[in-house]
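Z., the sequence and structure:
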Amino acid sequence: MAATPIHYAQLSRMEGARRQTQRQLELIDCQVLRRITSILPQLARRQTGYRRGKAPDTGSFLERYRNNLAALTAERQPEFDALTRKLARQDAAIAAFRKRFEHVGDAAQPRAEV
């Protein structure tokens, strides 16, 4: 089927919605990283220096860091999963749309002359 300007506009809207969903996923990642960065000083304060000749235990700091990161990630996991599913549906819809109207989206890609 031949592509019309309406099809190009519809594809553009679909791709815009996909970009917005991708930005929302990236925003969630940034928010989790920002929160874990803000609690890092609290995690490091529990660390004791050299006491009675013993070096500070970096393993416990890393364990606290990983536990807090897992907890923060788990809080946002349902939202992350929903957006990931939405992104997959959008990708499938865009691919099906392009397959149905084979020349839609090819305007940005020059054709190879044989």
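The longest helix spans residues 58-100. Residues 5-45+57-100 form one domain.

Let me know what you think.
H.
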